[in-house]
Amino acid sequence: MEMLIDFPGGARVDAHFNGFTVCTDQGPQGGGEASAPTPFDLFLASLGTCAGIYVLGFCRQRGLPTEGIQLRERVVRNPETRKLEAVEIDIEVPPTFPEKYHEALVRAAAQCAVKKQLEAPPVIQVATKVRG
Question: How close are the terminal C-alpha atoms of the chain, in Å?
Answer without folding.
Answer: 21
